[in-house]
Recover the amino acids of this structure.
């Protein structure tokens, strides 16, 4: 696969990202505690079979190099669910770099100042979906820089919650392939779904049982340019669709 | 191929993706593809791939970042055609 040149960031931006990284580590007892409390205490979610998943994630992290988690998307808190599925809060406390960075939609999640502060603390880089190309490219460049610096990223290749409730192959977001190529990333596909999750929703049903599966995936293409990025995004979504079929076959 | 011919071809390619027909009727080089023509940002890549096929050129990911207006697209394609 042809990699594209890593975007170069001004020193000021690199310092800002470094500062956010440090502050996120310092705040992690609070953010991780709040996540666990929200998912297990308030929503009373029950996660099934996390042991092998978390062990595999530790192994994938240990191999080193940029890692991009690509997941299906059905609720507005999927990034929390997936992060929790991949690592216990107590483990993340000692491995804060394993907590994935996210790129939530600025217009949905970061309209108010308090929301932006929360996103900052939760390792997010809000992206302006449908915004100017320079704005989107700037966010992707920062995200790629963080991955190249040893971080883990998390994206939803469908670009938004699936309206059909199933992985939508036609929704392949080209930017995901671009991040994979720009960051030289390995791709960790994660399929996660609650038993009561029939379609898309804001939140999972209270008390739902959450099942997750993951698969390390290496996209391959001989294409170049934009075509290569889109092909990679499609391959990732195809893998997620296969995992969805496995999920329902096992149910 | 001159800039005018490229412009006409670009507009023809964009037309199926345009949601604001009024803006299309008065389209010019300064017309913003996403904001004014209301082309879905997720479909922009499809438009770019159609540019590649129609003009037999290759467009890099970072080139797409320069395309905000119809004029930007025309300039990019003209530069690729040499």
């Amino acid at each position: 696969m042809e990699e594209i040149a890593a975007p170069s960031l001004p020193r000021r931006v690199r310092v800002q990202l470094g500062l956010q990284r440090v502050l996120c580590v310092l705040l992690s007892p609070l953010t991780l505690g709040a996540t666990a409390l929200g998912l297990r205490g308030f929503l009373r979610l029950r996660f099934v079979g996390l042991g092998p998943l978390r062990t595999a994630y530790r192994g994938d992290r240990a191999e080193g190099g940029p890692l991009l988690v690509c997941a299906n998307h059905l609720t507005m808190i999927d990034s929390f669910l997936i992060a929790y599925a991949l690592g216990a809060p107590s483990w993340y406390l000692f491995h804060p770099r394993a907590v994935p960075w996210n790129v939530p939609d600025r217009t949905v999640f970061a309209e108010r100042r308090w929301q932006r502060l929360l996103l900052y603390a939760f390792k997010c880089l809000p992206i302006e979906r449908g915004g100017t190309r320079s704005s989107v490219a700037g966010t992707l460049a920062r995200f790629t820089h963080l991955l190249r610096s040893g971080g883990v990223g998390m994206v939803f290749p469908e670009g938004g919650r699936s309206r059909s409730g199933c992985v939508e192959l036609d929704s392949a977001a080209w930017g995901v392939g671009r991040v994979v190529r720009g960051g030289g990333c390995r791709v960790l596909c994660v399929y996660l779904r609650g038993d009561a999750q029939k379609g898309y929703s804001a939140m999972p049903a209270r008390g739902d049982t959450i099942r997750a599966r993951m698969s390390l995936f290496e996209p391959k293409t001989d294409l170049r340019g934009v075509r290569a990025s889109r092909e990679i995004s499609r391959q990732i979504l195809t893998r997620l669709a296969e995992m969805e079929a496995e999920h329902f076959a096992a149910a | 191929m001159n800039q005018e011919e490229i412009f006409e071809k670009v507009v023809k390619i964009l037309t199926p993706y345009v949601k604001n027909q009024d803006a299309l009727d008065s389209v010019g080089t300064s017309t913003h593809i996403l904001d004014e023509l209301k082309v879905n940002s997720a479909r922009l890549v499809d438009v770019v791939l159609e540019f590649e096929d129609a003009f037999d050129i290759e467009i890099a990911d970072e080139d797409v970042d320069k395309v905000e207006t119809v004029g930007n697209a025309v300039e990019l394609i003209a530069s690729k055609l040499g």
Notes: Chain B touches chain A at residues 34, 40-42, 45, 48-49, 52, 58-68 (CB under 8 Å). Chain B has one domain: 3-81. The radius of gyration of chain B is 11 Å. The longest helix of chain B spans residues 3-14.
